[in-house]
Specification:
Four Helix Bundle (Hemerythrin (Met), subunit A), mainly alpha
């Protein structure tokens, strides 16, 4: 069954609102937490702004204006269905990652008072499930929004953030938690379960 492009745009919009809603709820929950480490330097700010353009600004412009029409293209009829199939686990994992992190979550490189190495829930198997959820979401976005900029801009900008930020984030965690976090790194994979995974007792 094929649908007009506008139907897939609506499907994306519903998921997009849900995605932003999840982030908003957990952002409010952690606003009052005291920060003991904060590494919001120029590089981090640049990464966040770039991802904001790809993940938020470009899709909104595409959905609400005709400014990006020059970058439209057409996918095979089956492609958006794969986007829907990716969207569901992406939203679940996005929610679950926030919920399992609890008050330890922050949008940037921060450690909060009482911060712990979270090893339960989805963090039992992978170190960066939130990044994994964003990767799935960006792939879904690319399959649902048939526009080179609005569809794939999020994946391109997030890939840069992930490559640059992850080593900085893990270095910060190692500096603060030492061998506990290094052991955790050895037991888990970054975006998917490690083949060396051993069940914790």
């Amino acid at each position: 069954m094929s649908f007009p492009i506008r139907v897939w745009n609506i499907v994306f919009l519903v998921g997009f609102i849900t995605y932003c809603g999840i982030r908003g709820v957990f952002k409010r929950r952690t606003e009052g937490n005291e920060k003991i480490v904060r590494r919001l330097d120029a590089l981090e700010k640049t990464l966040l702004v770039t991802v904001g353009v790809g993940s938020l600004l470009l899709p909104v412009l595409y959905l609400l204006t005709h400014w990006l029409a020059f970058a439209d293209y057409h996918l095979p009829e089956f492609a958006p269905w794969f986007g829907v199939l990716l969207m569901a686990p992406a939203l679940w994992l996005f929610y679950r990652s926030h919920a399992d992190l609890g008050l330890n979550w922050s949008v940037t490189l921060e450690l909060r008072k009482g911060h712990q190495v979270v090893k339960q829930g989805v963090y039992r198997w992978i170190r960066h499930p939130m990044y994994a959820s964003i990767l799935l979401w960006d792939l879904a976005q690319g399959l649902l929004l048939q526009n080179w900029l609005a569809g794939w801009g999020a994946l391109a900008t997030f890939a840069v953030l992930y490559i640059v930020r992850t080593p900085r984030e893990e270095q910060m965690m190692c500096e603060f938690f030492g061998e506990e976090y290094r052991d955790y790194m050895r037991e888990t994979g970054q975006l998917c379960p490690s083949l060396r995974f051993k069940k914790r007792t």
